[in-house]
Amino acid sequence: MYEEDVTDQRLESRVSRELCRRKLPDGGWSFFGSTQVSIEVTCLASMAMNSFAIDAVIRSIAALLRSQTPEGSWPAFVGDTEGSWVTALAISTLNIQNDPSDARERAFRWMLETRGREGHWLWKWKFKTADRQVNFDPEKYGWPWTPGANSWVIPTAFAIIALKQFTVCDRTAASEKRVRRAVGMLLDRACRGGGWNAGNSIVYGVPLVPHIEPTALSLMALQDEPKTPFIQSSVEWLKVSSSGCDSIESLSWSILALFIFQEAIAELQTRLALLMASPASIANNATLALGLLALRCGKMIHPFEVLR
Amino acid sequence: MTIGRRRFLSVGAGLAVSTTITAPFLVPKHYVSYRRALSRVAVLEAKEYSDDLEQLLFDGLTLFRLQIRGKSVLLKPNLVENLPGPVNTNAVLVGGAARAFLRLGAAQVTIGEGSGHQRDTELIVNSAGLEEQIRERRTGFVDLNRDEVVNVRLKANYSGLGSLWLPCTVLKSDFIVSMPKIKTHHWAGVTLSLKNMFGVAPGVKYGWPKNLLHWHGIPESILDICATVPVNFVIADGIIAMEGNGPLHGTPRKVNRVVLSDDPVAADAICSRLMGIDPTRVDYLNQASSFLGNIDQQKISVLNGNVGAEPTPFSVLPAFRGILL
Q1: CB–CB of B224/B230 below 8 Å?
Q2: Which one, A123, B40, B166, B175, has the greatest CB density within 10 A?
Q3: What ipTM, to 2 d.p.?
Q4: CA of B207 vs chain A CAs: smallest distance (Å)
C-alpha cells in the first residue's frame, strides 16, 4: 500500500491537503493548531506547497509580507515585535517566489547589522582571555537565535544560505565579508571528526557529539565551499546517522542536505514515507511541512540550494 | 539664595552617583513570596526504574494530602538531549507520576518540556522512552518550545528582563510539578527543581539553547521564572543521579531516592544535602530562600525517609568545590 502511495504521489497529496486544511484564515500557520502564526511554519509550508497549491502559497506570502517589522526583520511569531533568526528563512522563502517587493532588501540590511553578541570587542576580549571553558574563536561569529545572544550553528547556517541565495548575482563586499566570517565560525565550532552540535565543539574539555539537524543545515550552508575532508566526513556522519533515524524532522533535514551533496536519498525517502503514512496524526505543522519538502526533494526546486 | 553653576553641577553629580549606587538596593527584587511556615518533604527509597514506582509515588503523594481532584496537572520533566547516561528524568518515573496523579483525581495530566539543546523534540521524546509512557498512561505531551505563548510581566527582577514570553499550557495549568533529574551543573552548581523550570522558556523565542537568558544570568533567570511560574510540587529523580561534569557529561551516581516536596526550595535543599552539597552556598538557592521557599532545615518537615547526606559527596567541577558540605 505504501509503495503505491509513494509512486503515484498520493501520500504527498494527502500531506499537502492536510497542511492546507490547517492553514489559518489569514494565510499563515501555527505550530500546533493555535491561532498564533509562526513565521517558521509559514515559511516551511509555503516552500513545501510551492507550485502545488498556488492559492495557498500566494496567501501565505501575503501573510509573511504583512508580518515584516519596520526594521526589516521577521519576529518568530505574529504578535512579537522583535526580529529573530526566522528572518533568514523568510528571505529564502521569498527568494523562491522571486518576490518583487523591497522586503528581501530590507531584511538583507537587517541581517548585515545583526550579529552574535560575541562579535562585540568587549566580549571577544572576554572569550579570548577570561572565559575559556568553551573553546571557540570569537573573531569568527555568525547570527544568534534572537538579538542580544551569541551566534549559534542553526541560525548562522540559515543566514548563510539566505545571503548566498539573495546575493548570488550581486555579492557586495559587506555581505561577502559577513558570509566568510560566518563560514569560518561554522568550521571553527564543528565537532571533531565531522558534524555539528548546537553551537560549540568542546565544553569543559569534553568534545560534544554532533546532532543531525545542525549538521544537515551547516552542510547546506557550506554546499558551495571547497569539499574538504572535514566536509566529506560530515556528509558521511550524516549518512550513517540518518540511516537509523526514526524522527521525521531529523530525517527530513538529512534528505534535503544529502540530496544537495548528490548522495542517494531514495531509501531515506521510503522510510520517511512510512513515518508519515498517517499525516493527520502528525500534530506539528512544521514537521508536516518539512516532511513534505523532503518527500518532494528531487522533484521540485530545492529551497535551500545555492545556485552557482 | 543663589547656587553657583559649579556648585549646582557638583551637587547634581553627587546625587546621580548616590542614586546609581543605592537604587539596586531600593528597588524590590521580587514582588511575591511563596514561603510558608513549614514545608514538607518525603524521601522515598527506590532501587530501580520499574512499574512499582507508580504505587510508591501514589503512597508518597498521599502523605501530602494534596487537593488534586478536578485539576489540570502539568508534569515538567528534565529532557535535555538524546545522550546515554542519566541525562534526562527517567520516563518510567514520569509515567508513574502521571498515573498517580490521575488516581488522585486529576482531571488531566500533561507532560510538557522545552528542551534546551536539541530542536528535534520527537527525537528526544522517543529516545527517552517517553512515547510509550504517554501512550500507556493516557496522558499528553506538549512541546513547550513551540506552544502558543503570551507575554508575561515577571514577578521578580533579578535578570532585568522585565517580561518573558511563556507557554499557554504552563500558564493555564492548575498544578505544576517540577520533575528534575538530580544532577550537578557546570554553570549553576546543581540542577534541581528550580533550574528545571528554565525549560518553560520557549525555544521558538529564546532559541536552542535559551542563550538570551544565559546573558541575563542563569541564576537570575531561574529566580525570575520561578517567581512568575510557581512550582506547586516537586518529584526529583535521584534513583540514578549525575555527578561531575553535569548536566550532560557527568557520571552516573546511584542514590536510590525519589524526593517529593510541596516547596521547590525545600526540595532542592534536601536534594543538595543528599549530594553532599550545602544549599546555602549555591547562590540561586540561597536567594530563592528569601521568597520562593524554605532552605532552613528547621522549617522543613520530613514526612518520610532519611535525609542524611551520601557517605561520599558528589564530585563537582573545581569551580564548585566551595559548595560542598
Answers
A1: no
A2: B166
A3: 0.93
A4: 5
Mutating which of A24, A29, A31, A242 best tests the B interface, going by the most B Cβ atoms within 10 A? A31
Q: How many whole angstroms separate alpha carbon A178 and alpha carbon A193?
A: 26
Mean pLDDT across the stretch B250-272? 97
Put simply, the answer to whether B212 touches A146 (Cβ < 8 Å) is yes
Q: Per the domain annotation, does B5 fall within a domain? A: no
Give the torsion through C-alpha atoms of B86, B91, B93, B95, to 10 deg: 170
Interchain contact, A249 vs B120, CB within 8 Å: yes
CATH number of A2-210+283-290: 1.50.10.20
Q: How far is B66 from chain A (nearest CA, A)?
A: 32
On the question of pLDDT at A7 being above 50, the answer is: no
pLDDT digits (tens, 9 = 90+) for B47-95: 999 999 999 999 999 999 999 999 999 999 999 988 888 999 999 999 9
Q: Which long-range contacts (CB under 8 A, 24 or more apart) does A30-34 make?
A: A30/A285, A30/B148, A31/A284, A31/A285, A31/A286, A31/B143, A31/B146, A31/B147, A31/B204, A32/A283, A32/A284, A32/A285, A32/B143, A32/B146, A32/B147, A32/B148, A33/A283, A33/A285, A34/B147, A34/B148, A34/B168
Q: Which residues of B lie inside 8 Å of A (Cβ-Cβ)?
A: 83, 117-123, 126, 143, 146-149, 165, 168, 186, 203-209, 211-212, 214-215, 245, 248-249, 317
Question: Phi-psi bin for A253: left (phi > 0), alpha (psi -120 to 50), beta?
Answer: alpha
- List the domain boundaries for chain A: 2-210+283-290
